[in-house]
Amino acid sequence: MADRKTALVISAHAADFVWRCAGAIALHQEKGWDVTIACLSYGERGESAKLWKQEGMTLEKVKADRRKEAEEAAKVLGAHDIRFFDAGDYPLELDRAAKDELVDLMRKVQPAFMMSHSLYDPYNTDHMYTTKVAMECRMIAQAWGHNPGEKVLGAPQLYLFEPHQTEQMGWKPDVFLDITPVWEKKRAAIECMRGQEHLWSFYTNLAVNRANHFRRNSGGQAGGRDAKYAEGFQSVYPRTVDEL
Amino acid sequence: MADRKTALVISAHAADFVWRCAGAIALHQEKGWDVTIACLSYGERGESAKLWKQEGMTLEKVKADRRKEAEEAAKVLGAHDIRFFDAGDYPLELDRAAKDELVDLMRKVQPAFMMSHSLYDPYNTDHMYTTKVAMECRMIAQAWGHNPGEKVLGAPQLYLFEPHQTEQMGWKPDVFLDITPVWEKKRAAIECMRGQEHLWSFYTNLAVNRANHFRRNSGGQAGGRDAKYAEGFQSVYPRTVDEL
Amino acid sequence: MADRKTALVISAHAADFVWRCAGAIALHQEKGWDVTIACLSYGERGESAKLWKQEGMTLEKVKADRRKEAEEAAKVLGAHDIRFFDAGDYPLELDRAAKDELVDLMRKVQPAFMMSHSLYDPYNTDHMYTTKVAMECRMIAQAWGHNPGEKVLGAPQLYLFEPHQTEQMGWKPDVFLDITPVWEKKRAAIECMRGQEHLWSFYTNLAVNRANHFRRNSGGQAGGRDAKYAEGFQSVYPRTVDEL
Amino acid sequence: MADRKTALVISAHAADFVWRCAGAIALHQEKGWDVTIACLSYGERGESAKLWKQEGMTLEKVKADRRKEAEEAAKVLGAHDIRFFDAGDYPLELDRAAKDELVDLMRKVQPAFMMSHSLYDPYNTDHMYTTKVAMECRMIAQAWGHNPGEKVLGAPQLYLFEPHQTEQMGWKPDVFLDITPVWEKKRAAIECMRGQEHLWSFYTNLAVNRANHFRRNSGGQAGGRDAKYAEGFQSVYPRTVDEL
Amino acid sequence: MADRKTALVISAHAADFVWRCAGAIALHQEKGWDVTIACLSYGERGESAKLWKQEGMTLEKVKADRRKEAEEAAKVLGAHDIRFFDAGDYPLELDRAAKDELVDLMRKVQPAFMMSHSLYDPYNTDHMYTTKVAMECRMIAQAWGHNPGEKVLGAPQLYLFEPHQTEQMGWKPDVFLDITPVWEKKRAAIECMRGQEHLWSFYTNLAVNRANHFRRNSGGQAGGRDAKYAEGFQSVYPRTVDEL
Amino acid sequence: MADRKTALVISAHAADFVWRCAGAIALHQEKGWDVTIACLSYGERGESAKLWKQEGMTLEKVKADRRKEAEEAAKVLGAHDIRFFDAGDYPLELDRAAKDELVDLMRKVQPAFMMSHSLYDPYNTDHMYTTKVAMECRMIAQAWGHNPGEKVLGAPQLYLFEPHQTEQMGWKPDVFLDITPVWEKKRAAIECMRGQEHLWSFYTNLAVNRANHFRRNSGGQAGGRDAKYAEGFQSVYPRTVDEL
């Protein structure tokens, strides 16, 4: 078990990992990886409009509700672990202690790859802030002089998962992942997000259309893989390979 | 043998494939691929200064000499095949017949990947022209209505190999290939280029420094692969994968 | 009738105008505009795979079939006019006479806006070629010395309609058009494209998801318009206004 | 009066709104809008060289003087309101309370559009900081869970007004506004800025030249509007329309 | 005289060199350089609207008139030489012979720097075509195998002079030249362009405002040079220096 | 001595100035400039892996060791002065007092140019943070109202020196400096960095290859300067000149 491959997903708000990379989580778990999810906030202020429209709602209730949804989704996906940083949203801000906690998690997980948001998002500054923090913490986790004696982090890829309006964010996918085998799990996780039902069909349509892009890029009408659902990701760092 | 994987390198001038992807050629040949090289010109006018400084030199002599060097280099690398289009250089211009010949070659080779130059090159317009032609011919080779009945091309990746001044060309590598096992072959191919001896150490230094980048991106001081020589490439199209 | 507003759509292949701006065509016709469609080719070689898989197919049959589909689609949309340049595809190439014909059409139509493809498309060089030609012809149509005495073209906006893989083409929409009132017409036009049935659901999903983007940008959960279907466009030139 | 349209201008220093969008302010006021100006600082340290060259100058005197100039300019333009945040300049830094104040103002004004600085400015980091804060506060103001019960903000456009050296800032206008009807007001507001007289002719020349761009883009020599003065703006978000 | 430094200006239409770099021409002539101007066309179709509005105008008359204006302007600036390629405009297209003529000129002049248009211009495809040709011919002129025996071209800088709407062309100046000493000559050259009087004040305003940018970048309010008129240029290639 | 020209190098970690601009430092000193180096941190946590692998290492020992290396290197280069801010690394963070100290240094040195890191660095957020701080402090140092009475800063160029993986950082050199006359000093300074011996050959190879770029851009095979070692820099601001 010690040598299972691992991955770490860093999600600004509780639901981001569901819309944006639930397929990758479920698929890698099925392939024997252990995927850990870090939710930096619950999205309690900014992504819970439906809850706030209810009578007598409080911040604590919203957070509890969002946490429950996220835990259910993680379970449906078979995720190895889910951690909540409860750092607040709109705006999300991590102090040094919270950043150190994320560094510790990176070192503990020793991920082969990490995931986070697009580099730019003029609609949601929490998203780009999260990726900035992920880069900073990756650097610190690699430093031999940070908590000397601990096993330092290697050089995991950082995949940027799909934002809501890709073109406005300057996000460009360079890899498509076939998530057909785990689609039912992703859809089930999506349906855990009861507070954002208006997005269920959006992200289903998207997975179907990304599969078209998968087929187009894997051979087109001359032998392209017949993927039904896919997710796209943008890589921050170059790959290193033995064969192209 | 029918099912050996194949690749196609499209080189504007006779020596480009040596400096820029000789390692990839030799390595894939060693791994059981068949790599075909298409030299669109001999670089006879623009990349043969040393020859032209000799007394009594003629265009035909330069071309013959350059062809011989390229054939020797291809042989040293164990390349499956090398084709010469003799389309002229400075400027390189392919008419419709020459483009059709390149389309035919793509369909015949059915490459899993192709290689060509950077998208932009203000020093050498032949280079960017070559990539433009490669894209156009890739599109035509995929068309069911071009020479109907032939096997159409799938969706091969197009890797852009390293130009001479990367930053001026806006070239950004997203994959590094460890060519340590075949370095001696690449160096031998480089030494076939007797007319451009001033570039031998440049491309040797480069391979060594790219190996540093390989190590940095494969784990750094915490387990990075100890590559000694590497080549970098920029992908034009997204990858399609089953696992990240 | 002389003062109806007009628009001109320039489509590389016969079906492009359907997938990419059928909603805009139908909507503007309903609002009293006259929209002319220029199909530079039938997409006979490159976008008719289904036909070419039939026994005994010929280029002329494919072209006739594709023309019929395009005419039906234009009729369904209520388009004012549709012109076929029959310039060939894969590759599409317009000689000077064909370009002059396009210049003449621009001057005759005197469009308030024009539409064409994305500026970059590594999958389909016909697409980016079309936009390059559109820009060149727009410039010529504005020249007082080209066929002196004719009414010159003003400064129509050039909208770039949505390509198949937006992020790979570097296409970024800056305007979303609500096409809910004419969706049934667009869907009917899509269904005229019998040879490309595999794309029907793709472009339906897309219209639905673009409506989500429309809502998000027109007010979000605080009063956003409840659009059900939308199309996105990228503007080449700045707008000139009296009020923001 | 409740249904007058509104706009909010966010100006890093006291004079920015004058040089960069005084025409837009005066024009929209004349058209029945209410425009509110938020000056985050007085520009007391960094944009008051002329005052600091006087004997015995103090920070408070500079601030008072700059405030007076800005109030006069706002009055000349007929601006609905002007607010001073007095957050300091060179560097400008808003703490959480100041940001909350800006969020409150956005919710109170409920602007149809907002204005701020370019995304990048290597000469003046206060400018790009201001836009970053504007985006963050826009996001917070949209959150149902921020001060629940208040009316949340919709999705106002954010226009970036013209910086001093446009090309160095990567600023690209996508809309030109004809300010001819209110030019005299803009010039009068400019003349209120007694401390920066060296910029009066610069911004007058600029308005005249932008009108040339307005004419070029509204029809050129074939019917372009004869604007005499104009301002340019870059949009951050896509527009949503019913007709192109 | 053999060792005077030389420069070569490549102008798409007859008047471009006046608006965009007349100051640089006059200034370098005064400093002892020899500047040669190559006008690829007269701008007879596309930039002579005023002439075409006259009764009985013919192409030949327009060309003669434009040539005369350009020659006068060159004379006023003291330019060493002006050459007319008469390759036609809207569109401008150079065949191989015309390109060879430009290569010959580059070799004959042996310029220390060359000048041409912006890399991109969606309003005027002749402009970007000219720069593309300039790059191609620079490459050919450097080739030892092109007309062997001639003195090959070195590596002259290619400066892109200022287009009409800088931001739309993606043009970014990296060097400002103080043209105060020769402003009167530039203004006189501008006034030679009798057919485009509507642009005189535009380019005067521009020179004044560019001087403001010159001052800002040469020291600002702490010692900036008091330039009154300036021109901006974008460099294509890196500089090589002995001291920064 | 008062009128010696001066420069200021701002280095995130103790060794950055050695790898990236030691040649520029030594060369300008030899030419009579005074170059001051500001090391914001010692790189004690993140760039001292070799030291941390020793038994019983402490943060203070690492810092002392790194300081000693940097001082030796500065001495070898003949640098006028070296200052240590000891602001900590991985992450590097300057509070207001530390920034004010940097502003004071800029005013004291009154540099003709400054140097710092690339604008973007996804591997090392300390690097891009340093350049952000350099820009902010440059702005403050120019403000007449910051510590009124002091001599304000002019408008020094900010050169971005070469990062470790140029293409990943989006760094593009626009000037190459011939450092052949001082190469031995640079190599000696490099060898002072005993803790990072794995980088010695990397930066030697790089200097050799940059000299190839120098030659290519200063004339190529037709008179290019025969530089043996070079460094490249990217300019943030435009130059202002009297002659091109």
TrEMBL record, chains A, B, C, D, E, F:
Enzyme class: hydrolase
Membrane-spanning residues: none
Coiled coil: none
SUPFAM superfamilies in UniProt: LmbE-like
Pfam families: PIG-L
GO-annotated molecular function: hydrolase activity
Annotated organism of origin: Marinibaculum pumilum
Alphabetic keyword roster: Hydrolase
EC number: 3.5.1.-
Keyword Hydrolase: yes
Acyltransferase listed as a keyword: no
Protein's UniProt name: PIG-L deacetylase family protein
